[in-house]
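pasting for ref. prot 1 ->
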Amino acid sequence: MDKFTKDSTLGEIMKTEGAAEALGRHGVPCPTCPMAAMEMDKLTIGMICDTYSLNLASLLEDLNR
């Protein structure tokens, strides 16, 4: 997989080992949300960060390590 960007979907990200832990460290509630489970391939990490006022740059840096 190439590096994750703001346009990467939650579904793509969750296929990566350690992704759930990284998302949790940054306060992303989506991996445990039943509604998000239905939209994993539509929700982008950029949309999620905008919705929850999370630091996108910091999260992407962590995910791309």
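and prot 2 ->
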Amino acid sequence: MNATEITQMSKFERLQTMEAIWDSLIHDNSGIESPEWHQDILAARKKKIEEGTAQFHSIAELRSRPVK
């Protein structure tokens, strides 16, 4: 199935298809390997927390930021 075929489906059919895909992913135990760059970011964030230099923001603060 390609993007053109998907856009030709009704909204109801697209939602049904999306739900079926999500359901199949929930029951898939194969997992996805996290990319190396992601591990690097997580390690850098953990280091900042351990050093006490990490900055934390509330949900309210994040919501009040202008959208770029």
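The helical segments are 3-7, 11-26, 36-51, 59-64.
The first helix runs from residue 3 to 7.
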